[in-house]
## 1
Amino acid sequence: MSATLKSDREVDATRPLRALGLMSGTSVDGVDVAFLETDGERVSGLGASLTVPYADETRQRIRAAFGAEGPSALTQAAETAVTEAHVLAVRRWSSEAGIALSSLDVIGFHGQTITHRPQKRFTWQIGDGASLAKALGVRVVGDLRSADVAAGGQGAPLVPAYHAALARDLPRPVAVVNVGGVANVTWIGEDDSLLAFDTGPGNGPIDDWCARRAGIRFDVDGVLAATGRVNRTRLGRFAEHRFFARTPPKSLDRSDFTDSWVEGLSVADGAATLTWGTARAIALAAQHFPAPVRQWAIVGGGANNPILLRAIAEETGGPVVTGAQLGWDSDAIEAQAFGFLAVRSLRGAPITFPTTTGVPMAMTGGRLHLP
């Protein structure tokens, strides 16, 4: 069964909860599972995390559903595959971590974004939260973007509140950049003020280029880009895209930036130019910051690409550090964030804000599914 979050006021507002966060990004790599203990304000403990790659068939079904704005046989097949993949991933995490599912207070379920059109007040993350709760025997908070988008917000990014919790002790201002299929930034001021928005393409166009032109899923360690030469003329034209000058809040669908702007280049040159494009877009985000940052902290899949990190340092002027260098588990941060947001949602705390998504007022969101 499902219920709105307003029905769950029995939650002790002071006790840290044992939460599991689930995330599958627009790169469609697989399911990230991560454990944390939190009261929704501070993180009191982090635990085991796990990434379970999607099966090729599941990945194909998801890609076939990209851009859909209504149910069909394609979207139903994709949703079923996504839900089953999440069930299997959580059960595998439980087995490998030695943590019983019955010990969890809540699971935060992002689902799989197939379409994000906030200008139409529409966003769609497929995945059946009710079925997930029933299969796992744990209450699930899902559908975390829809309320924000319905109220006129961008529905993204959702992670700023968690970034702020992680960066509580870092020198401010600081920018936390998550590089997934799309990249987003959270600027955190000295007074804990937040500004967040999507910066532009992340790994998505690079992955697509590698798949189309090199027959590989992604550029491991940036090896392909490292052998290429950046086409500075095309990079300059790319940087003139109107999105970069648009005042935040702003967000992107994965398909809003593609690899088409490097068409005609060699495989290696295209990979290099796309990599620097992602970095240039991140650097251009600084024009919107209320004050310059003291450092850039890079998390997400892009933090594992040393060539992309070099490009970001070159384009921003640094200093650039990775989440791992700060003691964070960069690969697990987004999954952790959705566990964190699930706890905030249970407690009626806001998860989006005017300066992060453009929603008219700070608001909570999500839908609670009971096992």
## 2
Amino acid sequence: MAESPKFQVRVEGSIKSIDERVWDSCTKGFSAFAESNCEAPESFSQALESTLEDGFPNPSNPFISHAFLASLENSKSVGSRSGWLPQHLVVEDESGKIYGAAPCYLKAHSQGEYVFDHGWADAYERAGGSYYPKLQVAVPLTPVTGPRLLVKAGPHADAARNALVAGMVELCKMRKASSVHVTFAQKSEWNFLTSAGMLARTDRQFHWYNRDYKTFDDFLAALSSNKRKTIRRERREALESGVEIVRLTGSDLTESVWDAFFDFYIDTGSRKWGSPYLTREFFSLIGEKMADEILLVMAKRHGNYIAGALNFLGQHTIYGRNWGAIEHHPFLHFEVCYYQAIEFAIERGLRSVEAGAQGEHKLLRGYVPVPTYSAHYIANPALRRAVDDYLVREREFVEAEREQLAEAVPYKRTTT
């Protein structure tokens, strides 16, 4: 085996400082690593219990792309004012050739992460410590599993991966941060990070899997009778007030469309979070750079848009992200966010729908509980021991809850 180059890790305060082609070439290297660390299912029509827990290795996960991360920065949706200060890690050899990277941010709070550590922060502050700043290796404001250690495939991949982990710890010391949090990592990365000494954490989301359905009715036929009737009723009632559903992608994503969607986002986000992160410019930028990777499901009434859901498209998956509405009609949220995404996935032959964080109501609409993974480095030994003890019990609870939820899936039970 060829000797690995002598790697060094540098920090970039903006993704604009990293060549787009180089960054994206690093994201492509993840598939081989993921595929070598998990077992793919024999068929996506097999029993639900055999669904792929690691998420299908997706070489076109849109959120780790340079275009998406740059849109967040250029629109000032992230940056010093938001409390997400870019500190991207880059692994290179002595000649400056890049072998890997990681999206990293210095955080002054724990907002917009969807992996909650407020209790850890409160306990540490009460004990006299300073929990902030901390480092977050993640895609901001995006609770979607995906690669975090972006390393080019090749004989030096493991060395580059180790260099990234060492770089995280060193940056934590340099910035006098309390901790490093790698959130929504692929399971293969999680295994790698925890074997390197990081603390293991799990949670769960609800995803929908395509079992070789040809039509939405095929999907309904797989459900129990009462759930099938419920979904048909909800879809019917969502449109009873003269609501029309339209799907927009590519050149359909005009500025007037984004104006309407932003109004929905602000209205709903202000009520849920108080201060939505994403700026109006962000939507223009992703519309310019990623139009073919976006599906905007919009609801119209009397010729005017009244609600919408923003989805991103990967190679195998549709990712539901943001929803908003200025009119409220029974079951419209379910139709726009969940049923339209399922129907689109079936029509396009996509393997799954990921509908974001939380939401046990998704279970009754065909989404099943799947685990999510994060890894944590805690600098202070006492805090580390306390968090480690807590996570042991939390992992047991999360797995027991997921098994219980899996028993409640609305699909017909197969008999052998």
## 3
Amino acid sequence: MKRALGPNDRLYPMPCPLVVSGTMAHADALACAWIAVGGATPPTIVMALRKSRRTLELIRQTGEFTVNIPRASDAAVVDYFGLVSGHNHDKFAESGWTLEPAAVVSAPLVAECPYNLECRVLSEVDNGSHVLVIGQIVESHAEESVLDENGNVDVELLDPLIYINGSREYRRLGEKVADAFTAGTSVKRA
């Protein structure tokens, strides 16, 4: 038997990237667990940002941002980026993390994150306490150390940080359980 829990903001698990906007000279970042791929053609990101965030102000000024995937071992630094406000903290100076130029957009990449996406804002939607920002992915980058022999990101090597809403925990991914687009053939009827 299932218990009704009422409407909530919980989906399990959630990625926990750092979203950066601004320029190399003046940037801010936040930890963003409310983020997902929004489509494939064009490739898009959809994220929900609280209206008070300094990073959102910079996204609105430049129309660009980057999504930077940290390793699970970097949970403390990522949590710090979510705890303090860019209105009164220089998060990069205080954390010791560094920025590097992106190839296409003005918003920088986080050097310590092994996987990065460069994005341009397509639209935004007011959604109560948050703004939904939809961005087109215009470039992606991955450290050689997280790529497999075919040049694809190996999620085990990436070891991305994930967030568990509700219990407020950071975790890492577990073992592979099946191959997508293949496992279902054992259930499919002709």
